[in-house]
Design goal:
Chain lengths: ~450, ~450
Amino acid sequence: MTNQEHLFSINIPDTKKSRIVIIGGGFGGVQLLKNLNSDYFQIVLLDRYNYHTFQPLLYQVATAGLEPDSIAGPLRKVINRKPDTHFRMLKVNRINPNTKTVKTSAGVLNYDYLVISTGAQINYFGNRNIAEHAFPLKQITHALDLRSHIFQQFEKAEIMTSEKEKKKLMTFVIVGAGPTGVEVCGSLAELKNKVLPKDYSGLDFSKMEIHLIEGLDRILPSMSEKSGKKAKKYLEKMGVHIVLNCMTDDYDGEVVKLDNGTTIHAGTLIWAAGVKGNLIDGFGKKSILKGKLVVDEINRVFKDQEQKQVYENLFAIGDVAHMLHPDYPKGLPGLAQAAIQQGRQLGKNLNRLHQAQTMKPFHYKNKGVLATIGRNKAVADFPGDLNFSGALGWFIWMVVHLLFLIGFRNKAVVFANWSWNYFTYDRGIRLILRPSTKENDAVSREMIEAMKETQE
Amino acid sequence: MTNQEHLFSINIPDTKKSRIVIIGGGFGGVQLLKNLNSDYFQIVLLDRYNYHTFQPLLYQVATAGLEPDSIAGPLRKVINRKPDTHFRMLKVNRINPNTKTVKTSAGVLNYDYLVISTGAQINYFGNRNIAEHAFPLKQITHALDLRSHIFQQFEKAEIMTSEKEKKKLMTFVIVGAGPTGVEVCGSLAELKNKVLPKDYSGLDFSKMEIHLIEGLDRILPSMSEKSGKKAKKYLEKMGVHIVLNCMTDDYDGEVVKLDNGTTIHAGTLIWAAGVKGNLIDGFGKKSILKGKLVVDEINRVFKDQEQKQVYENLFAIGDVAHMLHPDYPKGLPGLAQAAIQQGRQLGKNLNRLHQAQTMKPFHYKNKGVLATIGRNKAVADFPGDLNFSGALGWFIWMVVHLLFLIGFRNKAVVFANWSWNYFTYDRGIRLILRPSTKENDAVSREMIEAMKETQE
């Protein structure tokens, strides 16, 4: 790959302005970019993908409710509205804060300011078997793989002779009862109860099982106790088996081993049990806390967290950052809102910096937390102990998500799809388009390879 | 794979009715199924995919105009409306007309009547290099691969140092000027003229080249001369280089060799130059003509075409069939309409057969032929030398395609997308979701492997 460096160059026009390089076009990166004044700065956005993803709705793609284009938008469309703003689709391999350079798959780029907004990746906590056999749900490609896999399970079950194997194909285990786990469970339960029996008349859907495994003593631990209980009631009514206080020890593609001694024969395990910061090489222990880049209240990365020294021109926002903030001793919540607010704040701060004004510390404004379990079944927590559930919660959930989806077109298509799904209990997108393997997903492949190397 | 046979069984309930097995859920197969009376027959549909594809719009998926769910529908949705009708997703390996059985990847199934509606596959005319490096456009997966590939070319071009390489990445060669080739050309030209320059400000789009190579002396040979000329004018005005009377000899992924001695350096070759029947093993030369199953006017496959002997219970319809018909000495046109009409007719004929009535011979009703080149640019031929072009042609094209797309939901989504594209000159679906290789596509892989074996 070394002589590739002669073929490619990151190739950004020279500028007299300061150059801000943003790594990662997620919620934080895009919001930052929108708030930066391009009269002050040249802006360069780098990402491995050419689109940004509305991750809270990935589960809808995975369960045939929406197509990818509804929850993802081309990053170049965001870029092309701003002058002297550039996008390059490539992988960043290393950051060197001393030389103020990033090393990418297409060569080296120097920066005046660097913002790392690479988000989070799945955390398998070192369990290689699970990494190899479980389905993650963090990227569009994961969601498409999972969708194809789910429907392939039922197609296979129709032609399977052994009752035991048939049951295995129809058994789904979801690990982790955060919003992703709960929403996938609810959506699978709706497929089981309303959509699939019409399609697969040869299968007995009373035998389809959905298990939700959670290590803590409740579901939706990031939400109010009231909402957690309500969501649990909804899921159980829909037929989901919930196991609390239980860790998942192993999965070989066929048998899930739980730490309470029981096993579940399941053709599918969806891993929604944890994420970790998507770190890039170039930082030592002094900059890292709980697997994330530790930052101050202005999102500056600590050069040395003990000595309270920061890099003046190097920032991290969103899920890759752990902010030391007196109001949030456990760190900010891993929500889109937190990334969006940090991106917006940092954009304004950098504009202030350029004008020699003082940068302002970050304050998180809790705008509420939502999770949907199914049609007319959602839970919503708002500041001031305001909780909603049922049809009203669901309505709030839908409006909020429609408002957040970027771009008028997506909103119209999403609304058309959801209306259709609501009134017909149909899911149009039951197409099996991809081979059901992890081979398509370069990131998963890399991760598994790295684990193999570590274990050897 | 042999002990798989014990694990799987095709598993259709026993019946006292006659069993009709349909292989292939394309236009013909679906239409046949809809017209069969399930009081008379048990119906079994077999397909490798779990969806049917509106193939005339594949080029829109390939060029980021539509998402797959807009032009594909789950086959089980068609099935689940009819009693005693069954779908199995699997591959048919062999037909044995003597024992009245089909051998599939999940075991053997016997039939009383068999209908082969497996359609067509890409014909590379034995050119292994082209098969390996060109992009086909016959399946949804092809269209998604091509879409990712097209946008990857521009992302790469942005970071490419060599001007020569950059130009190669921005050069597209389309071989074959039938409707698919012409429509892809037009859609690429619109991307070049209206969409991409906004996205890739670092690239000089006057250097983007689109070449259309055709072996015959005109484009759209299946349409009227007037429409062919009009389409040629449109394409040339949009900047497409058209080369007529020219065969494509070779392509190694970088250089296209034409038989007029010239070469074109191109990162993409789209092969729309020919198709052949998607035959299944089990038939000898006596049943095959021009690479298709030869059938009589009732779509019965000939056991021996010279002796005019037919199989009484074995039919072929659509693109896999070559009908001996006095009105169509060259065979029926390879259009959706021909397959649809044959499927409908055969369905009614089989119902008649059950009632001991006489089956009626097939007559093709030409409902017109359409091709679209771009916004407000389409050509339409109707019976009685009625030709339309321009905005009116385009409007007719749009209405006809909307009416044909199966299912209300798809129509609404397609119309929303097209309206958006029309008014904004935007293409929302510019997401690079798949690695740009043919490795995802099992059919292409099989075909290339088979060619390697033949050549060795």
